[in-house]
Design brief:
This protein is α/β, with parallel strands linked by helices. Helices cover about 10% and strands about 30% of the residues. The strands form three sheets. It has a six-stranded mixed β-sheet, with no helix packed on it. A five-stranded mixed β-sheet has the order 6-8-10-12-13, with no helix packed on it. The chain starts with about 20 loop residues before the first strand and ends with a strand. About 0% of the residues have low confidence.
Length: about 250
Amino acid sequence: MTVALAGRAPATFEIKSATLPLVSLLLKTADLDALATELSARFGDHPDFFDHDPLVLDLTPLQSQGEAAVDFPALLDLLHRYRVLPVAARGGSVGQMSAALAAGLAAAPELVVQPPPPRAAQAPAPAPVAEAPPAGALVVDKPLRSGQQVYARGRDLIVFSMVNPGAEVIADGNIHVYAPLRGKAIAGARGNTEARIISLCLEPELISIAGVYRTSEVPLPPEVLSRPTQVRLVGGVEGKLVMDPLA
């Protein structure tokens, strides 16, 4: 029997479509011991890095491993320790998705990339001008001492003073240090592979973009050491950091 719902809006609730910001975890292995080790190495020193963020488990990388069985209850327990809230899964095999649903996750729709609309002929580009600080960037104008940490959540970070050894600057976007950078700089902290690190004096203990990092154990090339430099990521999360001297 088909039941027609009344046309008037209920007085106590409304149902609307919603778009929410989500963190996506690309699961590359079903080995939870290996995953726990790497999560601890990456976030063990930052217990407040996540703030109960909703998360989607992307199982697409597991497709190359066939029907790799995922212990979803154990995986969810592991992720809860880092203050993330897995709410959905996508990209897995039929068996993996069935196990994800049995563990209480929703099935997230696959992403559909629409081709860009055709563009009309563009006018000649104007002459380059000095770039203004990104809107909403977090600005720090005091030196950062050893043990201090600054995190620009969801935005860029601009530092006008020295980042001393033992200090740490983190941003979901770009990091600009208009002074010596001698501590740790982690840009694209939530996976933004387009993020960049710019410093007027590059002498870092560690630089990282979207999880790809380089430590001071590997000496910097002389053309960028202690010089104005831009650091960018080439090749995505499987790529490498490239350092370009700035004129």
